[in-house]
Amino acid sequence: MSGSVVTRFAPSPTGFLHIGGARTALFNWLYARRLGGKMLLRIEDTDRERSTDAAIGAILDGLSWLGLDWDGDVVYQFSRAARHREVAESLLAAGRAYHCYASQQELEEMREAARREGRPLRYDGRWRDRDPSEAPAGVKPVIRLKAPTEGETVVEDQVQGRVVWQNKDLDDLVLLRSDGTPTYMLAVVVDDHDMNVTHIVRGDDHLTNAARQTQIYQALGWSVPVMAHIPLIHGSDGAKLSKRHGALGVDAYRGLGYLPEALRNYLVRLGWSHGDQEIFSTEEMIAAFDLSSIGRSPARFDFAKLENVNGHYMRGATDERLVEALETILPELDAPAGVGRTAFEPAFRARLLAAMPGLKERAKTLRELWDNASFLYAPRPLVLDEKAAGILSEGGRERLSGVIGRLEALPEWSAASTEGAVRAHAEAIGVKLGQVAQPLRAALTGKSQSPGLFDVMAVLGREESLERLKDQGVPRA
């Protein structure tokens, strides 16, 4: 099978690339890469009213950001409508499909009868064996598949196992609508066949479609691809995933400050397991991924776990990588003047880069990192948060009295030299280092917590540090 595997990701462009779609794309990508095959991308844009260019752009952008590249050109389903019609007509000619002239009113009556009798709605096959000469005048027919009425339709699913449908419970589905447009069921089968797709990996909400599509394959005499229907993602409470659980577009996760490599790592472990391993490099994912280790029960989305994985990747990232990642979401960060709008100003960038070793150790998202870096960009005089204000007002300012003179006198300004001066000040006034460091941090950053205090002072520099202390009313002596 190696080298001949072809998977596909086939989203409908009616909205953003949501998190479940991203995981489906990832599983397809990993399976193809592991077996030296291809992953193709098809945009299922046959719903013309709901498909939008903006959604197509968001899907392509989301996949690119996640690092999921596809092989060949993007296939647009709508552009292949003539081919779909041709296949429907060939089934008609072969006696595997037929014209159905049932009116909307007749179909509604069938629905009503099914509702009344508490049974599933099924088309009753009334035109299956009738002579088209009986057709009512002026009615444009649909083309329906002449589905088998006896026996079983079986899918040997790679995740769900052997799934069996009784053919008597499946009706003759529409292949071509009365206006000549193909249905989704037909289009998918024709496209997958023409694209030489060997493996269909998709959400288990498509499992019933698998039976219908298998019947179309069989009617056409085409081989049916291997299928794997993966469970959907649920919220942490076990309920169907909604926006409050994290059913957001991939673009929203980027905006929330997650790294693509972290989101990819988190998604691979949603429903797929490989022992106790939680962190995977891309190479490890590709080498380990298989369909047999996908569980049958829904995976649960857990923001806390995603944050922990993201924190791991942030700590392991280079400082430059994190600055660049912040730049990609800079327009959403509400940065003040002097920082930059679409890219950081060179002076600010250098300062942020210098502060990054301390910043990345304590943050789990880029947003949190940006918030922790606020001491670099907050306008002066700093507005102190409640804890910082309390530290300074409750004796903190007094304990700092005289520290400005010591700092001004330093021959060179570094983390080591400022620490020496502050330690000497604490000893001189007979208190522990923390009793001076705490109010000093509050005055310099406006917060009670920050990266290492002396690293902060080194990044801010002599002039800025001293001016901030004066802003907060620290006595000179």
UniProtKB/TrEMBL annotation:
Short name of any one Pfam family annotated for the protein:
Anticodon_2
User: Which residue intervals define the domain Aminoacyl-tRNA synthetase class I anticodon-binding in the entry?
Assistant: 345-471
The EC designation for this entry is 6.1.1.17
Task: State any single GO MF term.
Answer: tRNA binding
Report the principal subcellular site: cytoplasm
Motif 'HIGH' region located where? 11-21
Q: Which domain of life is it from?
A: Bacteria
Location relative to the cell: Cytoplasm
The positions making up the signal sequence are none
GO BP terms: namely:
glutamyl-tRNA aminoacylation
Task: Tell me if ATP-binding is a UniProt keyword of this record.
Answer: yes
Glutamyl/glutaminyl-tRNA synthetase class Ib catalytic domain sequence ranges: 5-307
Q: Cite the PROSITE patterns for this sequence.
A: AA_TRNA_LIGASE_I
Can you state which reaction this protein catalyses? tRNA(Glu) + L-glutamate + ATP = L-glutamyl-tRNA(Glu) + AMP + diphosphate
Q: Which UniProt keywords apply?
A: Aminoacyl-tRNA synthetase, ATP-binding, Cytoplasm, Ligase, Nucleotide-binding, Protein biosynthesis
Motif 'KMSKS' region: positions:
240-244
Has the keyword Transmembrane been applied to this entry? no
What's a GO cellular component annotated to this UniProt protein? cytosol
User: For binding ATP, which residues are annotated in this chain's numbering?
Assistant: K243
Q: How does this chain assemble? A: Monomer.
UniProt function note: Catalyzes the attachment of glutamate to tRNA(Glu) in a two-step reaction: glutamate is first activated by ATP to form Glu-AMP and then transferred to the acceptor end of tRNA(Glu).
**UniProt family annotation:** Belongs to the class-I aminoacyl-tRNA synthetase family. Glutamate--tRNA ligase type 1 subfamily.
Name the NCBIfam families on file.
gltX_bact
What's the protein called, per UniProt?
A: Glutamate--tRNA ligase
